[in-house]
Specification:
alpha/beta; Trna Endonuclease, Chain: A, domain 1; seven-stranded mixed sheet; 14 helices; 7 strands; about 45% helix; about 15% strand; globular
């Protein structure tokens, strides 16, 4: 199994993106449900983020969510990855699979689906491919493009979000998910905003990755807030050893997840079924099912190996 580029460089971009998109939509979280790495079916096929509107008829006002309907699939590509032609069709296929993988026929109408492709860089080959096949690519705001085919072909509304082109004024946290921040003003704005929300895990998760990916730039910037210096002192100090550079929040999250995996494996050894394990541990059935299926697929894998597999989905 290949190791994603983001894992080779030690940065967990996808968890940071999951936190970032929740921050961007936090004013409307009472209208939305978020699912990270939503598994499609019983085999390891996942969409990066699934966002479900609690009330399908209530519109989302945030710019990145105005296209949303009831069920919204999101594909994210980190700064070390790119959005390819095949990714476009893969996710469209995932959306169709998600629509059909239900208990009753047409339980999810095709009209209730949308797809959001999020790329750190402009996917030039994909855009060229789509235009050559008659798709209309229209920019609705800075960094946000709607993808529309002929009326007799298009069934699922789609949008492309290019993070580097987003407005820092409107989408600061997603725009800053970069390993090449050059604007000192953007760093100052990040520092100011983080100081307001330093105790919230979502903000800690995103800032951890942003600082680690732009460590030299943050070192150069003298006026970052004290909260940043305290929380990520190991990343901003030249004298820290490599082993101490791991973000405090990332380590905590990993430790908690490893603990849950251990508990699930222990219950599995007692021959308990998925529903019973989920009930005992007060965990989501889908999460337990995913780990149980992976354990069946990789019977020799211990909890650390299963954790690595969970965070190295195919195609990323």
């Amino acid at each position: 199994m290949s190791v994603p580029a983001e894992n080779r460089e030690g940065l967990q971009w996808h968890p940071a993106f999951y936190a970032g998109i929740q921050i961007e939509l936090e004013q409307e979280t009472d209208r939305l449900t978020f699912e990270n790495e939503h598994q499609l079916g019983t085999k390891p096929k996942e969409v990066d983020v699934l966002i479900i509107k609690k009330n399908a008829d209530q519109p989302i006002e945030k710019n990145i969510g105005r296209i949303f309907r009831k069920h919204n699939l999101v594909e994210y590509k980190s700064p070390t990855d790119y959005l390819s032609i095949d990714d476009f069709y893969k996710v469209y296929g995932y959306a169709c699979f998600y629509k059909s993988d239900t208990k009753t026929i047409n339980e999810i109408p095709i009209e209730d689906l949308t797809i959001t492709y999020v790329s750190s860089h402009r996917p030039r080959e994909l855009l060229k491919h789509l235009r050559e096949r008659g798709y209309q690519i229209s920019q609705v705001e800075a960094g946000i493009y709607y993808i529309e085919a002929a009326a007799d072909l298009q069934q699922i509304p789609m949008q492309l979000i290019i993070l580097t082109e987003l407005s820092a004024a409107d989408n600061l946290w997603l725009k800053s998910l970069s390993n090449d921040i050059r604007d000192a003003g953007q760093i100052q704005k990040l520092s100011s905003e983080y100081g307001k929300y330093k105790d919230q895990n979502l903000y800690q998760s995103v800032m951890n990755v942003i600082i680690r990916a732009n460590k030299e730039k943050f070192k150069e910037e003298k006026n970052v807030c004290e909260a940043l210096r305290e929380l990520f002192q190991d990343e901003l100090s030249e004298g820290e050893s490599k082993g101490e550079r791991k973000g405090k929040i990332e380590g905590k999250i990993e430790g908690e997840e490893l603990k849950v995996i251990s508990q699930i494996l222990h219950k599995l050894e007692k021959h308990l079924d998925v529903e019973t394990i989920a009930e005992h541990l007060e965990e989501a059935t889908e999460r337990v099912q995913k780990i149980v299926e992976l354990k069946k697929q990789y019977p020799e894998a211990d909890r650390e190996a299963l954790y690595k597999i969970l965070h190295a989905p195919e195609g990323h």
